[in-house]
Design a protein that fits this description.
heterodimer, A: about 425 residues, MetI-like fold, 3 domains, 3-stranded antiparallel β-sheet, about 5% strand, B: MetI-like fold, 2 domains
């Protein structure tokens, strides 16, 4: 051997063994470290999201004694719904504030006093009157929504001791706020708007409901298109297709489509569905069409795997009993493969729910206040709402963005858990 | 004879359900086809007839103005906002439009109904005991299956053609060479000819460079971390640990990209900036580094699960041989397993690169908008996908080179990712066949 004279192979190996074992330990530690970096990021990620977002589920409200003056709401006592709906409720809120702070008189001061309360307070009053018309004329102690600048200060996101120039509330407003707090008239209540509201320029009134409904319509379209198409394609490719160039082409295509960047699907949607077919912009229908083209490969691949997992003996038994090929597939193979197909479909739907890039292309970034009524009305989607809020400068949107993400992730969690459960429940080993 | 056979259900060729299915198919499919064709051709027919009835002066206008007028007519009918005060010609045309449309709709309903009933009667008459209804229905289903499977191909063709056509329109206005090799990108085109900064420049090299910089940074994070995690999970980790750690790591792949974007913009960006200030580096708040880091983390599970598959596919005999020669575990991995798995890992990395190049939301939210040609990871750069999004968000004229440029960029993106995917899939597939 080529070992140096005077040193046997054994000695050479023994000499290097310590170094080699050290390298072994280092290598293993590196592997573990890499894994921990990934998992650590995941933990950090969820920690920041929840830490940033949980405060958005509550919002600041003021307890004010509001006089529901009959001459403002319903001067002719007609109790006509239109009159009730169009009355100036915000002025009642202003009167209540003025009554609470009687020494504020100058116009400018009054304006900054009124700025403490959100324009949504009047809407709340309107809803109250519509619900209980008998309340007109009386005085109610009501918890009214505070402006978002007040909200972030009460929650401590903006500190009171910073110089006046650096905060959105001036010293006088902070003084009023402190006075109200001393009278225990300020409290954090459940943020209802966040769950039932649409988008709004006022963060304290902004909510995710319209985006959720938009996402729902979109997923409905996606499911209705991509599930039948995907299952049919999988059945054809697995059970009927002859091995020829056409089939190869379809297969290569499906694998490639699964890896095409989502934004390119958005370009397709814009050029084809909107410009050529003339479908409306910002409509969940178009979003659903684009997303179903994106989801199709996922469903096809999962469905094919589910079909291959059905053992040949079942096919042979059906054929042996005289079933035609189509009967064999539709009556025996498909039902056995269905759980696997559904699992793949749910995972594909979860991915579609989180997708936002192609939706930006087809105009679903609109500012949507109203809840969409059909797949043709303008809408936005949950992830796009996250994108829109993340771009908004107001501090109060930071926590709302995080909270919307938490809700989005909860939806995804439920969908994936359902997929796992379905797989566990119906998984068959042949 | 026929009556005698009909009396005994066992001698039917097909089950009753198939006869029903046969009749139902005949009743619906031709009628639906007719309805679809009608919907396709109705707008053209309406357009030619309504425009044909306009006075001479309007009819001879150029095509784009005619299109505007036609839009106005339709808006008048729908009761939408109209761009100008409608004249008597317009009102008459609108009247005509709505009359023609009503006529067309009534005709369509009647035709579809008649066709459906006629086909129903015809198919119903064919129901006989010896009629091979099952075979026909099954054939029809098979054709439907073939049609479904062609949607995948149609999608690819649709993507390619729609992007290509708009890109070609762009290349009529801007030369492809200027686009591919130009060094300056400022897509602001003028609305008025005398406007300041009206010269739109469409040199996409800064975008390509920015995309490569951010993707490169992402790969610097994703490849080592993903590969080492895969090695640890497949070679070192206990079964139990693997059962928990692997799905946890894959959660990273299930998080929507917009969430990563938010995270990059609002958490990682400021941290990097603060860190840069303490060290004395000038880190832009929308630095390539922040977007690249977060994108890398997003791609970790992608690299790790694909590498995990190829590492597990390396036959145990190779490892055993190496151990038998006295190699330690890490030596076996580095000198035997990784070289054997290399083609598969390369394929995985290529797929990851294609994903990084096409990633949109992270860079839209965390990378910059201005096209800087720089290799400095602390500076703000922009990417192809960011520009596609910014060019197309909001209402634009569809003919301006600014909007069409987005499609040219999309074409480049599509072709590059397609090439990467094809190569990667081929590499992975060829490698897999080796050991099977």
């Amino acid at each position: 051997m080529s070992s140096q004279p005077g040193r046997s192979v054994k000695e050479a190996v023994a000499q290097g063994i310590g170094r080699r074992y050290r390298n072994e330990r280092i290598f293993k530690a590196l592997g573990l470290a890499a894994l921990l970096i990934g998992l650590g990021f995941l933990a950090f990620f969820f920690y920041t999201l929840i830490a940033n977002g949980y405060t958005a589920f509550r919002q600041t409200r003021f307890l004010l004694d509001v006089e529901l003056k009959a001459d403002v709401i319903d001067p002719r006592s007609s109790r006509d719904p239109v009159t009730l709906a169009t009355a100036d409720y915000q002025s009642l809120v202003r009167d209540a504030l003025r009554a609470r702070f009687p020494d504020v008189t100058s116009r400018g001061e009054l304006r900054s006093l009124f700025a403490l309360v959100s324009p949504g307070a009047g809407l709340d009053l309107r809803a109250l009157v519509a619900r209980e018309p008998n309340a007109i004329g009386g005085t109610r102690a009501l918890w009214l929504v505070a402006d978002d600048d007040v909200d972030v200060m009460v929650k401590g996101h903006v500190r009171r001791d910073v110089p006046e120039i650096d905060r959105r509330l001036d010293d006088q407003q902070v003084g009023w706020l402190t006075e109200l707090e001393e009278q225990s008239r300020v409290a954090l209540k459940f943020n209802r708007y966040f769950f039932v509201g649409g988008d709004s320029r006022d963060p304290e009134l902004a909510g995710i409901w319209s985006a959720t409904v938009g996402s729902f319509f979109m997923l409905l379209v996606t499911l209705g298109l991509s599930f039948p198409l995907g299952v049919a394609t999988a059945i054809y490719l697995e059970e009927f297709a002859p091995r020829n160039r056409w089939t190869d082409l379809v297969e290569v295509n499906i694998n490639n489509l699964a890896a095409v960047p989502s934004i390119v699907f958005g370009l397709l949607g814009l050029a084809l569905f909107i410009n050529i077919f003339g479908l409306p912009r910002s409509a969940p229908l178009v979003g659903g069409l684009v997303l179903s083209l994106m989801t199709l490969p996922v469903i096809i691949i999962a469905s094919r795997a589910a079909l291959t997992a059905v053992p040949p003996s079942i096919r042979e038994a059906a054929l042996g009993l005289g079933a035609s090929k189509m009967q064999m597939v539709l009556h025996h193979v498909l039902p056995l493969a269905m759980p696997g197909m559904l699992t793949g479909t749910i995972i594909g739907m979860a991915r579609a729910l989180g997708e936002s890039a192609p939706l930006l292309m087809i105009g679903m970034v609109a500012f949507i206040v109203d809840v969409p009524e059909s797949p043709l009305s303008p809408a936005t989607a949950l992830p796009v709402q996250v994108y829109l809020w993340a771009d908004s400068p107001e501090r109060a949107f930071v926590e709302r963005t995080s909270a919307a993400i938490v809700v989005l992730l909860l939806f995804l969690l439920v969908m994936n858990a359902a997929a796992i459960l379905l797989r566990k429940r119906f998984e068959q080993r042949y | 004879m026929a009556a005698a056979i009909a009396a005994d259900p066992r001698t039917f060729h097909s089950l009753p359900g198939y006869h029903g299915g046969y009749v139902a198919l005949w009743c619906t499919l031709p009628a639906l086809l007719l309805l679809g064709l009608w919907q396709l051709f109705e707008p053209m027919w309406l357009r030619s007839h309504v425009l044909g009835s306009l006075p001479e002066a309007l009819r001879l206008l150029p095509d784009d103005q005619l299109g505007l007028i036609y839009n106005d007519i339709r808006n008048l009918v729908e009761g939408n906002v109209v761009s100008s005060e409608p004249g008597t010609d317009m009102l008459a045309a609108a009247e005509r439009y709505s009359a023609l449309r009503d006529l067309s709709r009534n005709l369509a309903s009647a035709a579809v109904l008649v066709l459906g009933i006629a086909a129903l009667g015809w198919a119903f008459n064919r129901v006989r005991a010896d009629f091979r209804a099952r075979n026909r229905v099954e054939h029809a289903i098979e054709y439907l299956l073939v049609a479904a499977s062609s949607v995948a191909i149609l999608t690819t063709i649709g993507i390619f053609l729609s992007v290509l056509f708009e890109a070609l329109r762009f290349f009529q206005q801007v030369s492809p060479l200027d686009f591919l090799f130009g060094l300056s990108w400022s897509p602001q085109t003028a609305i008025r000819p005398d406007q300041v900064g009206s010269s739109g420049a469409f040199g996409a090299v800064p975008l390509f460079a920015g995309t490569l910089l951010i993707s490169g940074l992402a790969m610097l994070v994703a490849v080592p971390v993903g590969l080492m995690s895969a090695i640890y999970l497949s070679e070192y980790a206990s079964r139990r640990f693997r059962a928990y750690a692997k799905p946890l790591l894959e959660i990273l792949a299930g998080i929507p990209t917009v969430v990563y974007g938010y995270f990059a913009a609002l958490t990682v960006g400021p941290i990097l900036r603060a860190f840069g200030e303490t060290v004395g580096l000038d880190v832009a708040s929308e630095s390539a580094l922040g977007a690249g880091l977060v994108m890398g983390i997003m791609i970790i599970p992608f690299v790790s699960s694909l590498s995990d598959d190829v590492i597990t596919a390396v036959p145990q005999a190779l490892r055993d041989g190496s151990y038998g020669l006295g190699a330690t575990r890490s030596e076996t991995i580095r000198h035997v397993v990784l070289p054997a798995a290399l083609p598969g890992i390369v394929g995985a990395v290529l797929l990851a690169v294609s994903r990084a190049i096409g990633e949109t939301m992270i860079v839209v939210m965390a990378a910059g908008l201005s096209a800087n040609l720089t290799a400095n990871p602390f500076a703000a750069v922009t990417t192809v996908t960011v520009q596609v999004v910014t060019l197309l968000i909001g209402d634009q004229e569809f003919d301006s080179p600014k909007t069409l440029a987005a499609f040219a960029l999309g074409l480049v993106l599509f072709l590059v990712t397609l090439a990467l995917n094809v190569v990667a899939l081929r590499v992975v597939r060829r490698y897999r066949e080796q050991y099977e």
